Amino acid sequence: MPAVQETVDKVRRIDVDQYKYGFVTDIESEKAPKGLSEDIVRFISEKKNEPEWMLRWRLDAYRRWLTMQEPTWARVKFGPIDYQNIYYYAAPKKKAGPKSLDEIDPEILATYEKLGIPLREREALLGIERPAGEDPYGKVAVDAVFDSVSVATTFKEELAKAGVLFMPISEALQKHPEMVKKYLGTVVPISDNFFATLNSAVFSDGSFVYVPPGVRCPMELSTYFRINERNTGQFERTLIIADKGSYVSYLEGCTAPTRDENQLHAAVVELIALDDAEIKYSTIQNWYPGDKSGRGGVYNFVTKRGDCRGRNSKISWTQLETGSAITWKYPSCILRGDNSRGEFYSIAISNGHQQVDSGTKMLHLGKNSTSRIISKGIAAGHSQNTYRGLVMAHQRAKGARNFTNCDSLLIGDKCGAHTTPYVETKNSSAVFEHEATTSKISEDTLFYCMQRGLSAEDAVALVVNGFVKDVLQQLPMEFAVEAQKLISISLEGSVG
Amino acid sequence: MHLLEVKNLHVEVDGRKILNGLELSVGKGSVHAIMGPNGSGKSTLAHVLAGKPGYVVTQGEVLLDGENLLELEPDERAARGLFLAFQYPLEIPGVATMTFLRTALNAQRKKRGEAEISTPEFLKRVREVAAKLAIDQEMLRRGVNVGFSGGEKKRNEILQMALLEPRLCVLDETDSGLDIDALKIVADGVNRLRHPDRAFVVITHYQRLLNYIVPDVVHVLSRGRIVKTGGKELALELEERGYAQYHEEAA
């Protein structure tokens, strides 16, 4: 019977492993020796042929890091991380800088193809069709980061015509060092926190975007991060600057192979929006979450912060978090400009033994600055899912407004959802609203859906998709479908 | 062969016996009403037929067209043509009614090895049925049953029933909470679905509904078994004299 066969297949899939990006690409790579020291920092800087000031910046960060401690306030538990047992630099072996995609190791291209990323120029040139009446620019420019280095960036020329710079940050350090120097570390200072400081010392690549005044970036920009090597940390650094009156939408995706040991990912993302500029930053985070018993998986300790530096500027974070053994991540907005606006839309799904502690900070400094937080946490299996948020209004921030809505959905009775909102206001004209709900997918609702013909898995996916709809709508259309699929995959095996 | 056969059905919930050797045979094209006082096991019967978790069948069998339903998951029973109109339909926030209808219809078709319904065909069918049930398009765009009145929820149940075209329709106290106008709309909807290949089991506490959905057979359920079976006039008799006498007989 087909229905029975389908169930059997489904169960088998769940039993083996539902993480479909868990393959390893067999390519030769060049690594720095294991462990962290000033020599390693110098090694990385030298590999990247960096200017002297950059090396000093890194060394400064490294020395501070030595005096710092891992933060312990988050609701996550993990054993000690041996920072000397990690490779801080791994690069696919290649001859000096590929000129075109043809020069890139075909194994790497095959990997990105498996991941469903249209990296090849000819594929990318086809673009992605949008429904009629939508933005005529349906193309997505992709930067792909493999372990520690960026391997390919597409659509460079077309972007250059619009004046948009989109390149690996290592390349930006060569071609536009003054711009990197002007903005790097101005949103997340090198002493910000343990993981950001570590990143400042050892980051090896990441994306750099600059959108000139008045330019609306003609396509979605996207970076895919892939950790491939064993025992390798990934420390990418992303810096996006939207100059006055410009607009850019950027999306990052992340995957990693299935490994028994934990891999460390400590990224820093800095966004800067000047007067009247808007940055929309979306993440589909699907790092390897570990196996059924909680072994392996990526430790995701990420610092993301946007600075609405100019008047009327706007920064919007949208994230779909489905992977990682541990997620520690609070994409935030500093609402410095008057009338600036920050938004945070989040779907965080945890299953198995995953631990998520994620949320946002909205720091209102400018007059009449506004912010909106919509967070949807979904916990299944034995996972723990925490929303942690801070909304703060400075004395100067007259007329600041925030609306926060945090909903949690529990699937099963062995998981936990927690909401920890902090609100601080130093002036009486600020208006902050907070709503929160926690609900459970009831047996009755599942039975209702099943009585109409849906399988248990499909019923859960349907209810969850309804639950996260408000946030899914914020994702760029090209990725919304992918996101929806990812949600059902992440929740496979969460019922029955 | 009868479309539905329930033989010597014994069911427990949390160790408590609810159904005690219930027997019921329903032929194609017929409408059977099951009446009984509160706690007699009416809703339990509806839930067990549809496969709701939490009910333990200790004895007996349930056959739909000769196939043992008790071995099937609720969604498999649905795909084989069993539909339960809920007494308390559930709300599913964020899922448009239209999406839900389509997902359900296609899920059933897929399980039966049929192709998915085309969008124009689907829309046409929904519009036709919705119009007859006085359901407007705006309601179809809202989340499933979210913010629906009691009457709207029940009409939505009948809408689903009409779209899914089941062989056996079980209506669990569909009249509860309905005013007379809503009751008429719902009953009309059901009557339009009467068909020589389709059977109905209408569970109700009151005779009122049966003025509009006229049954071929009326059963009285008491303490977990059928204690009397008759024609439609039995319902009127119950209305007049109450259930008290059957309590004693069953005891």
Question: Nearest-angstrom radius of gyration of chain B?
Answer: 18 Å
Number of domains of chain A: 1
Strand content of chain A: 25-35%
Gyration radius of chain A (Cα, Å) is 22 Å
The CATH class designation of chain B is Alpha Beta
Structural class of chain B: alpha/beta
Number of helices of chain A: 13
Overall outline of chain B? globular
Descriptive overview:
The complex is a heterodimer of chains A (496) and B (251). Chain A has 496 residues and is of the alpha/beta class. Chain A has one domain (2-490). Chain A is 25% helix and 33% strand. In chain A, the strands form three sheets. In chain A, strands 5, 6, 8, 10, 11, 13, 15, 16, 18, 20 and 22 form an eleven-stranded mixed sheet that branches. In chain A, strands 4-3-7-9-12-14-17-19-21-23 form a ten-stranded mixed sheet. In chain A, β3 and β4 form a beta hairpin. In chain A, α2 (38-47) packs antiparallel against α3 (52-66). Chain A is globular. The two termini of chain A are 20 Å apart. Mean pLDDT of chain A is 81; it is low at 1-17, 95-99 and 118-138. By secondary structure, chain B is α/β, with parallel strands linked by helices. Chain B has a single domain (4-250), classed as P-loop containing nucleotide triphosphate hydrolases (Rossmann fold, 3-Layer(aba) Sandwich). Helix content of chain B is 37%, strand content 28%. Chain B has nine helices and twelve strands. Chain B has helices at residues 42-50, 74-79, 97-111, 119-132, 137-141, 150-164, 180-193, 233-241, 244-250; strands at 4-13, 16-26, 31-35, 56-64, 67-68, 82-85, 92-96, 143-144, 168-172, 199-204, 217-222, 225-230. In chain B, the strands form three sheets. A six-stranded mixed sheet of chain B has the order 6-9-10-3-11-12, sandwiched between helices. In chain B, strands 2-1-4-5 form a four-stranded antiparallel sheet, covered by helices on one side. In chain B, a hairpin with a 2-residue loop joins β1 (4-13) and β2 (16-26). In chain B, α6 runs parallel beside α7. The model of chain B has no long low-confidence stretch (mean pLDDT 92). The chains are: A alpha/beta (496), B alpha/beta (251). Chain A binds chain B through residues 2-3, 442-445, 447-456, 458, 462-463, 465-470, and chain B through 50-54, 73-79, 83-84, 86, 89-90, 92-95, 100, 103-105, 107-108, 111, 113, 143, 160, 164.
